[in-house]
Prior knowledge:
By secondary structure, this protein is mainly alpha-helical. 66% of the residues lie in helices and 0% in strands.
Amino acid sequence: MAAPPSPKAILSLYSSTLRAAKSFSSYNFRNYFLQRTKDNFRSIQAETDPAKLSLAYNEAIKELEVLRRSAIVNRVYGGRRLAVEEQNDVQERRDT
């Protein structure tokens, strides 16, 4: 049986997963994966069984790899910004 991951390793994986989730250009995907990451790591934090903790940690590593690849694809094929997002490149209309 493998030793459970250290709290520092779990925290490092959590921050890497949050960083990957924030890299999505799409508002809906970004917010979904941020919330999913927080929920997933809350359940990992509450786990007391070392075997289940190791299993959950390994699954989170696999999910991070998928999340990183998905974020790259989303940035390449990302669409326009939604109305709820901050619009940085909007020009004002000048009727003069």
